[in-house]
């Protein structure tokens, strides 16, 4: 399947002139009411908060195997020059490796593991494909955070994702403490779409993946959402996973501790929510950032 050349009615306009009003979400958060791998109480909590945590997805042995895979990837001199590798502006350290499930066979197998794939299908109520995958690195002392944002705002504006029928999984490969740059979310904020101000420049992704300036909410709206919903932080041992809605407001601070924080990040999108033309950008971002291969994922064979 390939990218459609049409665009549906824009129910979530963004990248506008002047201060826009907030838009109440018109789409579900949990798209399935049928029994599945996620129990009813967790589904209800995910629907209300916009996120849920799956403790101990990976065993300690599996965590070590994936950690060694990250060490292998970052130590590959040929990979560093690849456009899918994002380098920090100041430290020149690797910040992210995109499309990692196409680079690493081990991670390709992981995203098709029933423990992960079946949960994504259940939350989205359909077959799914990988919209985006990457590994994120936040080294000790110098790891840079991500400013407050909604992923769906970017995916809608720059990739042409029609609706927030996507869910992200952040799988921790290091322990997440309250003090080493752990991801913060505003529970319940996923029910409000926050339009952003400013026209999207051509090839905006080249700068935004390092430091985003266009497509970030105003301080007034961040303050309003934080006052209304509060802020939760994802903490937990390596091997645990945070699942969060595409429209939830989230961000992370810098890591000035000696303890690194790294994770495997995968975005699952419903095959019924395939990308169209961008809603607020001159052209789509490259496929390694926003895949246009909508082939449904199949379960990894059991060994």
TrEMBL record:
InterPro entries tied to this protein: EctD, Phytyl_CoA_dOase-like
Catalytic activity: L-ectoine + 2-oxoglutarate + O2 = 5-hydroxyectoine + succinate + CO2
Matches recorded under PANTHER family: ECTOINE DIOXYGENASE (PTHR20883:SF48), PHYTANOYL-COA DIOXYGENASE DOMAIN CONTAINING 1 (PTHR20883)
Record family assignment: Belongs to the PhyH family. EctD subfamily.
Gene3D superfamilies, per the entry: q2cbj1_9rhob like domain (2.60.120.620)
Role of this protein: Involved in the biosynthesis of 5-hydroxyectoine, called compatible solute, which helps organisms to survive extreme osmotic stress by acting as a highly soluble organic osmolyte. Catalyzes the 2-oxoglutarate-dependent selective hydroxylation of L-ectoine to yield (4S,5S)-5-hydroxyectoine.
Protein's UniProt name: Ectoine hydroxylase
Record Pfam families: PhyH
Cofactor: Fe(2+)
Source species: Kibdelosporangium persicum
Superkingdom field: Bacteria
EC category: oxidoreductase
């Amino acid at each position: 399947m390939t990218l459609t050349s049409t665009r549906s009615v824009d129910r979530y306009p963004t990248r506008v002139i002047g201060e826009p009003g907030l838009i109440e979400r018109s789409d579900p958060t949990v798209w399935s009411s049928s029994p599945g791998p996620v129990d009813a109480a967790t589904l209800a909590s995910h629907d209300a908060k916009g996120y849920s945590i799956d403790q101990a997805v990976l065993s300690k042995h599996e965590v070590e195997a994936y950690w060694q895979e990250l060490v292998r990837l970052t130590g590959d001199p040929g990979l560093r020059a690849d456009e899918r590798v994002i380098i920090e502006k100041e430290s020149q350290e690797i910040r992210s490796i995109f499309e990692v499930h196409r680079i690493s066979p081990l991670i390709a197998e992981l995203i098709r593991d029933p423990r992960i794939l079946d949960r994504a299908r259940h939350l989205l109520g359909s077959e799914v494909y990988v919209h985006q995958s990457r590994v994120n690195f936040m080294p000790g002392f110098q790891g840079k955070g991500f400013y407050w944002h909604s992923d769906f705002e970017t995916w809608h504006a720059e990739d042409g994702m029609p609706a927030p029928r996507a869910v992200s999984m952040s799988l921790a490969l290091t322990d997440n403490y309250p003090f080493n740059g752990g991801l913060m979310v505003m529970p319940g904020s996923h029910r409000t779409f926050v339009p952003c101000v400013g026209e999207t420049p051509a090839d905006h992704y080249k700068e935004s993946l390092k430091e985003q300036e266009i497509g970030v909410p105003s301080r007034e709206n961040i303050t309003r959402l934080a006052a209304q919903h509060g802020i939760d932080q994802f903490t937990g041992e390596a091997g645990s996973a945070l699942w969060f809605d595409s429209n939830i407001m989230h961000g992370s601070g810098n890591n000035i501790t000696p303890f690194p924080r790294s994770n495997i990040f995968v975005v699952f999108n419903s095959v019924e929510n395939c990308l169209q033309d961008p809603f607020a950008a001159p052209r789509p971002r490259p496929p390694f950032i926003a895949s246009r291969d909508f082939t449904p994922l199949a379960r990894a064979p059991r060994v």
